[in-house]
UniProtKB/TrEMBL annotation:
It comes from Basidiobolus meristosporus CBS 931.73. It catalyses: RX + glutathione = an S-substituted glutathione + a halide anion + H(+). Belongs to the GST superfamily. Mu family. Pfam families: GST_C_3, GST_N. Residues 3-79 form the GST N-terminal domain. This is glutathione transferase. It comes from the Eukaryota. GO terms for molecular function: glutathione transferase activity. InterPro entries: Glutathione-S-Trfase_C-like, Glutathione-S-Trfase_C_sf, Glutathione_S-Trfase, Glutathione_S-Trfase_N, GST_C, GST_superfamily, Thioredoxin-like_sf. GO terms for biological process: glutathione metabolic process.
Length: 218
C-alpha cells in the first residue's frame, strides 16, 4: 500500500519539518523524497519553482503553511470550531514571523556578529508571546482549545530551532507553561521516536547556511 503523502524537499529539516512532525504525531504514512540536482529540478516545479511540494493522491500542494493547514483540516487538528481555528492560525503565523528571522540570521554572512542580538532579543520576545498564548488559551497545555492542533507543531519546531542557538533559552522560571509544553510535546511517544530516528534530517538549514547547515556550522 502506498504512503498517503509524498514530500519533496531538500535533505534538511527546514520548512518540511513541521509537515513531518504533524504526520508522525498523527501516525500517517508518508515518503520523504529529495533530489541530487536542485537546479535541474527547480524549473519543473511550476509555477513558483520552490519546495516543499507535497502530493496527497492526485492533489499537488505547495506553500508549507497551506499544506500544513490542509493536513490539519483533513485530519481533525485545526480546532473544534471557528474560534479555535482562528487561534491556531494566529499562533502559527507568529511562529512564521520568528522563523523568517531565524532563517535570515542563519544564512547571513555576518551570523557571528548578529547572533547575540537574536539570542538576547528575538528569542525572549517570542518565548514570552508563546507563554502568553498558552495562558490565554486557559492553561490547557495546548495553543488552541483543549486538544492537539497544528499550531502545537509550529511552536515546538521553532522553539526547537531557537534552542539550537541557545540551549538555555527556555528558562523554566521565566516560561513555565512553554517549558512544560515543549518537553511534553518532545516526549510524546511518536514524536520522541521520530526525533531519535534516522528519518529526521540532521541539519536545520541548507548546506550554505552559516548556522546548522553542515558539520562545520553546528
Amino acid at each position: 500500500m502506498s504512503a498517503e503523502y509524498r514530500i519533496l524537499y531538500f535533505p534538511i529539516r527546514g520548512l518540511a519539518e513541521e509537515l513531518r512532525l504533524f504526520l508522525e504525531e498523527k501516525n500517517i504514512s508518508y515518503t520523504d523524497e529529495t533530489f541530487e540536482d536542485w537546479m535541474a529540478v527547480k524549473p519543473t516545479l511550476v509555477p513558483l519553482h520552490q519546495v516543499p511540494i507535497v502530493w496527497n493522491g492526485d492533489i499537488k500542494m505547495s506553500q508549507s503553511k497551506a499544506i500544513l493547514r490542509y493536513m490539519a483540516n483533513k485530519h481533525g487538528a485545526n480546532g473544534k470550531n471557528a474560534r479555535e481555528a482562528l487561534q491556531a492560525d494566529i499562533v502559527a503565523e507568529a511562529t512564521n514571523d520568528c522563523r523568517r528571522k531565524f532563517v535570515a540570521l542563519s544564512y547571513n554572512p555576518d551570523f557571528k556578529n548578529l547572533k547575540t542580538a537574536y539570542i538576547e532579543e528575538t528569542i525572549p520576545f517570542y518565548m514570552k508571546a508563546f507563554e502568553y498564548y498558552l495562558e490565554e488559551n486557559g492553561n490547557t497545555g495546548y495553543f488552541a482549545g483543549n486538544d492537539f492542533t497544528y499550531a502545537d507543531v509550529c511552536v515546538f519546531d521553532i522553539t526547537d530551532n531557537n534552542l539550537l542557538l541557545n540551549p538555555d533559552a527556555l528558562n523554566k522560571e521565566q516560561y513555565p507553561k512553554l517549558h512544560k509544553f515543549y518537553h511534553d510535546f518532545k516526549n510524546r511517544p511518536r514524536i520522541a521516536a521520530y526525533l531519535e530516528s534516522e528519518r529526521r534530517p540532521k541539519y536545520a538549514n541548507g548546506y550554505i547556511a552559516y548556522f546548522h547547515g553542515n558539520e562545520n556550522t553546528i
